[in-house]
Hints:
Elements: H1 3-16, E1 23-25, E2 28-30, E3 52-56, H2 57-63, H3 68-72, E4 78-80, E5 92-94, E6 105-109, E7 112-113, E8 133-139, E9 154-160, E10 168-176, E11 180-191, E12 194-205, E13 214-226, E14 231-244, H4 253-258, E15 270-287, E16 290-307, H5 331-335, E17 339-359, E18 366-386, H6 394-400, E19 402-424, E20 427-447, E21 450-451, E22 458-474, E23 480-491, E24 499-500, E25 508-509, E26 515-526, E27 532-549, E28 555-573, H7 574-577, E29 583-598, E30 619-629, E31 633-642, E32 671-680, E33 687-694, E34 702-704, E35 710-711, E36 716-724
Parallel strand pairs: 6-9
Antiparallel strand pairs: 1-2, 3-8, 4-5, 6-7, 8-9, 10-11, 10-36, 11-12, 12-13, 13-14, 14-15, 15-16, 16-17, 17-18, 18-19, 19-20, 20-21, 20-22, 22-23, 23-26, 24-25, 26-27, 27-28, 28-29, 29-30, 30-31, 31-32, 32-33, 33-36, 34-35
Amino acid sequence: MGMAAMILIMPAFAAEQASQQEHTENGESVVADKVNVTGILPDRLEAVPGSFDVVDEKELKSRQPFSVREALNQTPGINIVGEDAFVLAPNIGIRGLNPRRTSRTLLMEDGVPLFLAPYGDPSAHYSTPLDRVSRIEVVKGSGQTLYGPQTVGGMINFVTKPVPKEFQASVMAVIGNNNFSGGHVNIGTGGDWGGVMLDAVNRKGDGIRDNHDFEINELTLKGQLNLDERNTLIAKMGWYEENSSISETGLGTVEYAEDKYQAPTGRQDSFNHTRKSLQLQHIFQITDAAKLSTQFYYAQSDRASFRQINEPGSLGGRSEMDRCPGVVATETNSAACGGRWRPREYEYWGIEPRLDISHNLFGIASDAVIGFRYHKEDIQRDQYRDGNPLAQSLGWAKANGSHREDIAINVEAKSYYAQNTFYLGDWSLTPGLRIEDLRISTNVKRAEGAVQNNPESELTNHQSKVLPGLGVAWNGIANTTLFAGVHKGFAPPRPDRDIEASAANTAVVSKTKPEESTNWELGLRSNYFKGIAFETTLFHTDFDEIVVSNGFGRFVNGGKSQHSGIEFAGRVDFGTIYDTSHNFYISGTYTNLFTAKFKKDSAAEGIHSGDRLAYAPKHVASLNFGYEHPVGFNARIGVDYVSAQSEDVIFRAGRADYDPLSGMSGQIPSYTLVNASVSYRPIGSKATFFVSGHNLGDKEYLASRVDGMAAGRQRQVFGGVRYDF
């Protein structure tokens, strides 16, 4: 749903959240209770000095998206690369930034980062199941000073459902082609004392390629305790498990031409991920105008991947078995060969007190936010390799295989931030400041199978960055906001990818510079005309040191780059225009990224000024036609379009290591996909029936070349029923 659609449903949304909205008494702004939700957007949306988008629960229920990709593909500025069927490892890019594992977009749940390690390994191998989501917030403009560390692109926050104030339960079951099935159970109860709620989620099915089946399970327990009128405790515990057979490598050109959906090593390849999380929050309503919230969070992830191909297409367009040199990867050969295991452990925790206060310090009505966060990470990276087929067992590989990598990474980060919004008649002015101070310690104990005692294999990288921001909004026309803003963006270096070693005692931890950017916006959002709403935003981002992939597991500084473009979102509701309960509507979004280029030559990395950045399509568009009937019937059909994209610079012709048969070279052609959804909840019924389909034309298309050629998802149709008790 675009920003325009969000504006249309805002009155209903505001009524639903009335107990939490900010209001005005005697001309003074009052901060009201925000216990039930943890969003990153303020209550006074009209004062937000930048572009944002909200996909609310009503929209999620009516559209029934298959995955987070379908939930966000109608959000302007977003490009999602679908390498796996259910988007288990999200690849979300905003405004031309490389979407690989969403590392340039801050992914959060209830305001807490979701990465494996937000500073040390900002890779997304998990996103909140949509069954638990109340709304999705996307923030791209000014105002990012309150959150970090990834602030070069934008933020996506999954706001989970609040605990109920009375007994409440629901059961949902879904089934579809490609052996897809799933279920969700929610049960909770509550009262004046607070509440408790349990969610259980299961999803499983076949992947895009052969033998790429997957299954995920998640349990989440959320509770709230109202100690008194001013003190509230909120707790949330989660356990998640993924077991999939998804290869992290694609196909060479010959393999792709023969059968784009094959996975020669899929029967042996695997990705296993377990995640445990805890979030505690104490909210102290000091006065009606001041609130102190203190949050503690903890996450621990174990992920172990096994694969048998390292360089796709290396044997004349066919892939080689990594541990069986010269052997072409086939289902038969893969059973008789070992491979490489990459078990990794991640643990991080943090504490963050934050004060929200409404004041008139300078004789001007204002809302201020002041906060501090202390964050710690511990990362352990290992790798085991062996050609023996017994190495397909991680236990055997640990006991008998070659221990190729042993790296410990520790991160300590301190973040300080302050922001104040001044309300000056029809104007609101929001200056903000964030300071990031971090120490990243990397200890390479073993690399390329050799013990490392070189002093340069141990490095502490200390970075301190001051990140100011300023935004302004004008509401001089009814139901219309004109906004502009600028802020400094920052993404810390990637210590997990910044290591070189060729033999014993040669390991060097290089000091890659962090990404720094200056982000500008100018935009307008309005629903001035009855039944018509739209938003348009002109954006420009300058990078001082963009970080790009060198194609072999490492990232390097690519120098200066520039991103410029325009976004548009609009919706027309004919039911509103003609005052009828039968509502036909048209909604659409469009992003034109007319500039996404390097601005400086880099001979070492093969970069030429003017080169187009990787995975930055010039055009991304979505157009939908829908009908909403008063008896509870909703239907929608739409098309999504993504224009051609470039691959990583490293794989372009002219480089010494260029291999046109690897599958990693060449453009990604444009594609158009058709999707539709229908839902029906009879009046007075507690049951909702739905059917949703994606890529209904069953178009075959290329989705990615990051690790070889990877096809996009084929036709996926599923249906189900939800029953509310």
